[in-house]
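Cont'd.
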Amino acid sequence: MSPIRPSQQYEAIADHLRTAMREGELNPGDILPSEAQLCESFHSSRGPVRQAMATLRNEGLISSGRGRRSIVLEAAETESFDAILSATSWLSSHGIEPGSRTLLVARQPAPADIAAKLEIGEGEPVVSLHRLRLGDGEPVLVERQHFRMEYGRHILGMDTDHESINRGLQQAGLNINNISRTLSVIPAPDDDAQLLELEQPSALLQLEMRTFTHAGTPVACMDYRYRPDRISMGMNNTRGNPSPLWVNVHV
Amino acid sequence: MSPIRPSQQYEAIADHLRTAMREGELNPGDILPSEAQLCESFHSSRGPVRQAMATLRNEGLISSGRGRRSIVLEAAETESFDAILSATSWLSSHGIEPGSRTLLVARQPAPADIAAKLEIGEGEPVVSLHRLRLGDGEPVLVERQHFRMEYGRHILGMDTDHESINRGLQQAGLNINNISRTLSVIPAPDDDAQLLELEQPSALLQLEMRTFTHAGTPVACMDYRYRPDRISMGMNNTRGNPSPLWVNVHV
């Protein structure tokens, strides 16, 4: 039995290389050491070195080898799981002061479309939250969130202008395990345009999201509408590594 | 020394589970067998089983375990590397007949912004391609692509209304290794709106892309502008697995 489990060893190697990139020891365009050299440096067999490289490729940090040495790619600051869940975390991670203006917090019967997304019966109670979100005082997005009652009830007592919903729910013991998102462009309804200080007609970037517990139970469904000039997104992909994005066409 | 390298073994296990999901042996919401059961089924130690699970989590196929059994998630048909590179592949993979109307193929001096993206001098020759892309005969996106001369010269002889540029360049020996993409929403310029049969004012979903060789040399830069009602995209994320998306805010 080796003192380090192989799964820990590959993580240690990947971590070491990530740090080297972050600290400028390895820069975009640099060629990575060969597998043999990495094995020697890390006193490792080929397996963990290969797995570390596969991990870094998946993260878009290095090019795919395909028989040749990998190079360091231009790194992007990718989103964290918490930043997907929480506009507060997302804005803060970009050095921008998050703000909220609550327009509605309500316990109400679920309309059919919301009930379907939460996998509950139409008319069962949900907690709905409608907020304008600000970054450094400027309007960035309009949020409409609907929570299953067992989770949403914690929100009814929160100060939704100043507290992070996500942090509050975590403290109440809720653990979101996975998220599905759909992105589209929609014409701005007048109420959203007014909140976002957009002249009509305008378009919005819409992100519809559902969050789930580990057991696969829906927790909430969200409709986020961003001022299009205040958001951009992107991704790096390397050949041979799966992209998690789906892109549908409607004709 | 074991007869199967661990790296092959984890791939075999991941493949087996993927097939089980595709063929309906495992369905969304089902609980996966325990690590111990998988070890037994595959005559494997824990390492490869864990690595197979990590791979499936990265692909958004199963939930993260965190001490509990993973469940099978609703799978999305994610994009392939070729579908990122080629609208022809992308449309075909959705059962839609791809079409092209070429508006311009030209060898021309690179304007400053294109030269910067291709990392060449301003005024050096590039091959530019401007096409309307159709799906089942309906306008879907407007393409503007600019290739470095050494790659683009192959395009000058192609039938760009009927041939796949990507396939042609592959046959000429070009191997794209990685891609960076940026997504935003822009007001539709009049010429694009007319091609896409949109009434003004309209918005477009813009995807700016750069492709690179293994050595990190830019091959081409692209500006794709989609009719917003003909495209949607999305992603599934599980806690503990890195998301490759970056999301910036501009205030």
